[in-house]
Structures are given as C-alpha cells and as structure tokens.
C-alpha cells in the first residue's frame, strides 16, 4: 500500500489543523493505521491509531483531549483532527499502515507558532 500524507502547514498556537492520509494499492479496511510525529532532534513518537476490524482508537499522551483520529474505509483515507495546537506539536507527521508489513507515508510538516 502507498500512503500520501497531506494537510500540514503553519498554524498559530490554539488553532486547528486536519491532516489527511490517503492510501492506494490495497483496501484500507484491513489495516491498522496510525499517526506518528517527529520533532527536530527528537525520536519519532506515537500520536494515535485506529485498529482494523472494530476500529478501536488509541491515543498517545500528546494527543489525548486535543486530537481526533478517524478513518474512512470507503474512501481509503484517514484523518487526524488537531485542535488547541501548541508550539510543542511542531514536527513532521507521518501516517503508517500495518498488516503483516509496515508502510509509512512521506510525512507532512506542521509548524505551530506561539
């Protein structure tokens, strides 16, 4: 499966941004999908995920209460709605799909200004 992340950009602190990750090649419904992010000089960290099947959602501490993940299996796309953004949310956001193998998108830059 090929993943294409988009929606990044510059946003002021307190603002919102919605990231998208579109998939091609295989049906999205069979994949556990997730968002990770990487700030400059830091390790990549987990943001949120939707498990295949029941669609159980998981959130990392960085996302709880502010971010919402969703997945549209019919359109083969997933989203990350980010609200109340903070400067520490700045980084490159990557989408990932997993089903036996792990597939990564190319990342989209989010910059939150104070």
Find the structural class using helix and strand composition.
mainly beta
Average pLDDT confidence is 95
Helical percent range? under 10%
In the predicted model, the low-confidence regions spanning at least 5 consecutive residues are none
Element pattern in H and E:
EEEEEEEEEEE
Q: Biggest β-sheet, characterized?
A: 7 strands, mixed
Strand content: over 45%
Strand runs, count: 11
Assign an overall shape: globular
Rg on CA atoms, Å: 13 Å
Distance between the amino and carboxyl termini: 37 Å
Q: Please work out how many helical segments DSSP would assign.
A: 0
Oligomeric category: single chain
Please provide a written account of the structure:
31% of the residues are buried. It is globular and about 40 Å long. The strands form two sheets. Strands 2, 4, 5, 6, 9, 10 and 11 form a seven-stranded mixed beta sheet that branches. A four-stranded antiparallel beta sheet has the order 1-3-8-7, with no helix packed on it. The model has no long low-confidence stretch (mean pLDDT 95). With 114 residues, it is mostly beta strands. Strand 5 and strand 6 form a beta hairpin. The chain contains no helices and eleven strands.
């Amino acid at each position: 499966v090929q993943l294409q992340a988009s929606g990044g950009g510059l946003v002021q602190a307190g603002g919102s941004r919605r990231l998208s990750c579109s998939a091609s090649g295989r049906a999205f419904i069979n994949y556990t999908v997730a968002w990770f992010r990487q700030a400059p000089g830091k390790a990549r960290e987990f943001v949120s995920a939707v498990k295949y099947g029941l669609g159980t959602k998981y959130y990392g501490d960085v996302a709880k209460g502010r971010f919402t993940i969703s997945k549209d299996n019919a359109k083969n796309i997933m989203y990350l709605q980010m609200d109340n953004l903070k400067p520490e949310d700045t980084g490159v956001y990557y989408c990932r799909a997993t089903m036996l193998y792990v597939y990564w998108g190319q990342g989209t830059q989010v910059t939150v200004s104070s």
